[in-house]
Every structure is written in structure tokens, then in C-alpha cells.
Amino acid sequence: MTMLRTRRRSAAATTTSLVVALVRAALPVVLLAPSAPAAQAAYARLYAPRTTPMAGLPFTLKGIITSDVKRPIKLQVVGAGGAATTVAKSTATRRGTFTFRGVVLKRSATLVAVAPRFRGTLQHPKPKVSTAPIVVEAVQQSGSLVALPPIAQQGANPEAPSNAAQVVASFRPARPGRRVQLQQKSRRTWRTVARGVQDGGGFASFSVRPGRTFCAVARPTGKIPALMTGAVTSRSWKPVFEDSFSGDALDTSVWGDRPNDGTEVLGKRTCARADAAARSVSGGTLRLGIGLDPSRASETCHYSTARYGDGASPYLVNTQIDSRKGYHFTHGFAAARIKWQRPKGMHGGFWLQPLKGTTAGRPDLGAEVDVVEHFGDDTLKGGVGSFVHYPDANGANVPLAADPARTAMLKPRGDQWWSSYHVFSVEWTPKQYVFRVDGREFWRESRAVSQVGQYLLLSMLTSDYELKDLDPAEHAAAANVDWVRVWQT
Q1: pLDDT tens-digit profile of 70-80?
Q2: Helix-then-strand count for the chain, H and E
Q3: In the chain, which residues have pLDDT < 70?
Q4: Any long-range contacts for 23-28 (C-beta under 8 Å, 24+ apart)?
Q5: What does the alpha-carbon distance between residue 322 and residue 324 come to, in Å, rounded to a whole number?
Q6: Does domain 241-487 have CATH number 2.60.120.200?
Q7: CATH-assigned architecture of domain 44-136
Q8: Considering the domain 142-233 in this protein, what is its CATH number?
Q9: With contact defined as beta carbons under 8 Å apart, do 288 and 317 qualify?
């Protein structure tokens, strides 16, 4: 340490001596200021609110900018023609974070956060910085209650199908954890008969007795006032079709293994075929699986996809069964209670197909209705998929799809599609399809509504486009179907 200090003093002394020598020699001396730090690229971001704001009620917005000093920030509403109106002010911290509290919007708006030009230090003034605009939806509080068959039955284990009537309340915007009371009409008054809380999608479901009239009340919280839904009357529901997969074999009077020629609309399966060996029934559930094709064990399948390129795979057997020979229906509720597989590289499905096939340009004469498809962990934004497919006038496939992100909110916190059974259903009417998970609606579609008889399908498939994700060590993974039911009004 002593030596280091000596060297520093020596260096300083040398510099001083040099300057003195230059002055004595009458030579010009230029003293250089420390160089300015390299300019840091400006960055700013305004985060979307964690929950959808209610119109007229205060909420909070947060964001961040590149900054090493405190500086003022303005929140502005961007109107037609780019005109901006300041609606809130804040100050960024030295780390660049900022928070706008008490923001109130009367309607949905485009918002931007602006940091005006700031002097900062004399040497390094701060330029104006703006975030990219975000659209914030502000909606009026609303709620509804619907009477349904028993299609809400989430749980870790197989269970006997419920026959209780159900009502499901839905509130918008969702406030997870907000208390909900179910009230039953008794003559001229209402009395509370059950209590629950909103889930991540704003839903609360209740099993009830048939023939009663109910409403649901979202309790007041903070500055949000209470809200009562309209009234509905529950009814008795008796399934017109049910298979709970008792015993140790599939009911072949209803179900059959569906042939697969590898030319399906949704993607070729050149390396797989349907085979009864991939499925089994035991413990009250139907197992939907895949496996190696024993008839081609020594062969390698080569496939080609437009999006993912070429690849190679062993030949496989898949599960694909349908009720074409034993049951079909026109309009009603179709539901299946399923626990899905976790791995990627295969996808399970519960779907409907028209008895007589599809007709180009005539979806009313039949459409493929994918009630639910699951493609494994870390796919579809953590949700499940629902689709409607039909051929246009030229015979080309037209896909309609739900937003899978909405379904990701329809399971309990910490739950996974492969850790619990959930009921996936479609309500098919002459005018529309309504898709639900455990009675919680996530998609309504009024296009391509079939008006003809359709049959049920259950499958676990390995299409060419997903084989790249299929780990041979996970061939034993499967989905389990607890029951399938159909109700008609």
C-alpha cells in the first residue's frame, strides 16, 4: 500500500513538473476536461394496467425511462389527429421508474407517457422522451348470470358425472377474489343461499336446485359499488348421451377407430396411423395415447412441412375414435371432462364432424368444430385451443379460432391442464357456438354454424408439424377422459 501511494505521488509530481517546464518555455498549454460519457440510447415504456380499469374510477399506471436523475413525466391521452391532453403527472426516480396514481378515464383511450426536455446538468441536458402509445380499455361494470347443465367439474381425480343444475355468474371487468353472493328469490324478497369469489376471468359458479330463480351480487370493494345481475331460473338437465368409460373396454357399439389416410385438413400425419393399441379403458377413464408402430419398427419415416422443414421420425400409432356409427346429434351441449398430457409433440382433442362430410361454400351443411385442443406445456399462451373449420367456395379450409390467452385464466391459480380434470364444452344452437371451460365462457362464434347432424371424436395425434418437439422418452404420456355427455333443450 505504501509503495502504491508513493507511485501516485510520483506521477502527480512528474505531471506538475512537466507543466511548469512548458510554462517556462513559453509553450501553449491546453488543459482537457474529462470526456463526456457516451450518450445512452433513450428508452421509455408505459406498462398496460394489471386489470381492466372501470370507467370513471381511479386506477394506476406504471412505466420506465432511461434516466439517472429525477425528472417530470406527463401522462397524455392521444386524440384524433394526434392532439394530446395531459391527464396525470408524476416524477421519474433516478432509476427511471414512474407511477401515475388516480388516473380516471371515461372511456377507452390511447395513452402515452412523455418526459419533456429536461436541463439536468449543465454539461448533459436530457432530451424529450416519449413511450410508445398503448390502448387502455375502460369499461362500465357489468354482470350476467346463466343457467347451464352440470359442465363445471374441475378436480384432480375422476368423478361420477354430476346431475345438479348449475348457474355461472360473469362480471366485467374481472376482479379476481371479489366476493360474490348467490341470491334466491323467495316470494318478493331475495336471500343469500351461497357465496363465492370471482376467479381470474371474473366468473363464479354454483350448483343449485332446479326450478328456482336466482341472481348474483358482486359485493362492493374499495370505490367499486355493488352490482346485481339479472335473474335466471334453473332447470333440470338429463343427458341424451353419456359415456363414463366404466369397465375395461371401449363401447364399440358407439365408438370406432377412425381411419387416417394422412391427408387431413389440419395437417398431414405421414408418420402415424390410428390404432386401437394406442388407447385403453381402465379405472373409469379412457386413456388417449400414442406409441411406436410395431408393424414398422425397423423403418424410419421422413416427412416434410412447409413451415418447419424436413425431418425424420419413427412410425407411430395414434388414438382417434369417433361415434359416427353409434351416435350423432344436431344442436345441444356437448361436453367432455379431460385431464390433458403435458409434453409437446402431440395434441389431444375433443371435436365434432358432420355425418355426411363438408360441402364447399356451405358450412351450414357441416363444419369441423374443435371443442378443445391441447398441444402440451408452454403452447397457445398457456391456454387451450378451440377452432371451427369449414371449406370456402373453392374448397380451401377457412379456420376460425378463439383467443387461447382467455382460456389460460379459466383454471384455478397453480392448476395446470395436466394436473386436473376440466370440463370442455360447446353449446351449439342454430345461430351460434358458445365455448366454455368449466362453464366459463371464452368464445362465441356465429359464423359457419352447422345445421346438420354431427358426431363426436376423441383423439391424441402426432401431426408432421409437431414431430420436431416429440421426445421419444415421453411417448408414454397420455390424456385421460373421465366422461362425455350431450344435453339437448
Answers
A1: 999 999 999 98
A2: 2, 36
A3: 1-41, 120-124, 260-267
A4: none
A5: 6
A6: yes
A7: Sandwich (2.60)
A8: 2.60.40.10
A9: no
